[in-house]
Amino acid sequence: MNMSKDAYYFTHDSNAKDDPKCALLIDQLGMEGYGIYWMLIEVLRDQPDYKYPLALLPSLARKYNTTPQKIEAVIRGYQLFVVEGGVVFMSETLVKRMCAWENEKTRRSLLAKKAVEARWNRAKELPQKCDSNTDVLPMKYEVIPIKENKRNINKKIIKEKSPRSPKGEVDLVSLKDQFEIFRKRYPGTKRGLDTEFNEFVKKYSGHVTEIVPLLLPALENLMRWREQAAKRGEFVPSFANLKTWINQRRWETEYPVESLNTIDDEHKTSVKFD
Which of the four, 26, 44, 90, 189, has the lowest number of CB atoms within 10 Å? Predict the structure, then answer.
């Protein structure tokens, strides 16, 4: 089963079955026909160009325990799909939705890249040398136990393992502040800031400066998706605890968030039957 991060979510509005074209499909072909319809939408979603060859319908029929005739009846009989040149079929509305999703994905990627570039630009302004009392540490870090104030209390000094900025330095205090803004915003179960930040730095050693600016934008996109999904009547899972969210790199998950001018259209189906 292909469970790439792009395939985790596929919007399916709860009132899709009430569209007149789907209602006719169900009336004439029953729930089997309706199931075939959504199978075809899912198949199209997995194609690079969201199109599928008609010549492969017998293969689909064998795979999903139906007949080529029934599949072709769903494709051609209810104006739910468009056949191009008698060779491939597609869903125009699926294409529109996926193009909007891809544009949003590209926009978020550019914003994240700009955030990283801004961090490097600020890093360039740091002094070349720092005295031993500053919070700016060389960018190669590993965990080294030391003793503090003559007591046997192990502390952790963080040294970078690979250079991340032109001057080879990283402001951990600034990164920790950014991490705390994200942490406070996260609604799930959390622990202490020091514990979570130290574990985060240890786990993603060498990539902290790249990842931290991505956390808050990813969380805001997730919360926006959850709000829109709830309005559409879709199932919205509970937030994982923060440790799980970070360990599973969920800031990389893409969510199909609608633009602001479409949020109020609560009954717009994910596949519009024109």
Answer: 189
Q: What is the DSSP letter of 169?
A: E
Using only the alpha carbons of the chain, give its radius of gyration.
25
SS3 1: coil
Would you kindly state where each structural domain of the chain is located, as residue ranges? 1-90, 104-131+165-274
Longest Cα pair distance anywhere in the chain, in angstroms?
Answer: 83
DSSP state for residue 238 in the 8-state scheme: P
In this prediction, residue 181 carries a pLDDT of 92
Local structure of 33: helix, strand or coil: helix
The residue written with tokens 């569209």 in the block is 19
Please identify which residue in the block is written with the tokens 């920790």: 176
CA 163 to chain centre: 28
* CA 271 and chain centroid, separation: 20
DSSP states of 34-59 as a string?
A: HHHHHHHHHHHHTSTTSEEEGGGHHH
Which pLDDT score, from 0 to 100, does residue 211 have? 92
* Of residues 97, 2, 76, 87, the one with CA closest to residue 52: 87
Rounded to 5 degrees, what are φ and ψ at 271? Answer: -125, 110
- Residues 218-228 have pLDDT tens digits of 898 888 888 88
Per DSSP, what are the bridge partners of residue 66? none
